[in-house]
Amino acid sequence: MTDTLSAAGGTETRVPVMQATDLVAGYLPGINILNGCNLDVYPGELIGIIGPNGAGKSTLLKALFGLVNVRSGSVTLKGENITGHKANKLVQAGVGFVPQNNNVFPSLTIEENLQMGLFLRPKLLKERLAAIFDIFPVLADRRTQRAGSLSGGERQSVAMARALMMDPSVLLLDEPSAGLSPVRQDETFIRTRRINKTGVSIIMVEQNARRCLQICDRGYVLDQGRNAYTGTGRELADDPKVIELYLGTLAKDVEAESGPEAPGAI
Ligand SMILES: Nc1ncnc2c1ncn2[C@@H]1O[C@H](COP(=O)(O)OP(=O)(O)OP(=O)(O)O)[C@@H](O)[C@H]1O
């Protein structure tokens, strides 16, 4: 599906950067986790996906990135069908993915981690490192430090930076603030918005639903593998039903679970 906009002198048809239509997907035979999900992200948008534990948010990201078997429905990238394409092919086509856990190579330095993100186009290393260090200046200062010695927030920065090395059109972020203190969570959200402002479309799954809705252009509430509510971040954050069902305790729970983290993190 495309969106037709009025523009000076005529109409302009916008093609979504990425679009999922009626996605059904799951891990085990006969058990579907996604039960007909729909999602689209247009150029330059920051999309938030929220919902209760087990709703299928991470599974949706994995289905977009070819990491879980799509049983029916489709995924397109700039209008091209990419349903079921493998992750390496998707990276080459302009999709970046930052998983929630195990998202850095701990024994490698920060710079080596970033280099790994560009192994498909090593000739661009100097140029891409300069662009990334512009967004993450602290990574440049600490480029020789091993990723295994970094805090959770710092690792998250390295993982995001690595995914950006290929200069993706769309970046998929799986709970980037998970396990971080409130201050580090805030830094992560600000950084995510900054990356988005450089022109990268972003689809972000988040447990910190309120904060996610504050920064995203549009959001999707998933429940039991289906779209429950969709709207702008503001519309969802102000919707009494969404507040009652999904925001009331969720944000408080996440804040209570977040532990302190060392100062001076990236
Ligand atoms: N590798 C797997 N094999 C089998 N079942 C899985 C696998 N990964 C996730 N699931 C199941 O899929 C369901 C949805 O999980 P998913 O991680 O997508 O939910 P979520 O909305 O991201 O939840 P959370 O906020 O708790 O991370 C859960 O019931 C989970 O147990």
UniProtKB/TrEMBL annotation:
Coiled coil: none annotated. Residues 18-249 form the ABC transporter domain. It comes from Subtercola lobariae. GO terms for biological process: L-amino acid transport. It holds the Pfam family ABC_tran. One of its GO terms (molecular function) is ATP binding. Keywords: Amino-acid transport, ATP-binding, Nucleotide-binding, Transport. Belongs to the ABC transporter superfamily. The keyword Lipid biosynthesis does not apply. It comes from the Bacteria. This is ABC transporter ATP-binding protein. PANTHER family: HIGH-AFFINITY BRANCHED-CHAIN AMINO ACID TRANSPORT ATP-BINDING PROTEIN LIVF (PTHR43820:SF4).
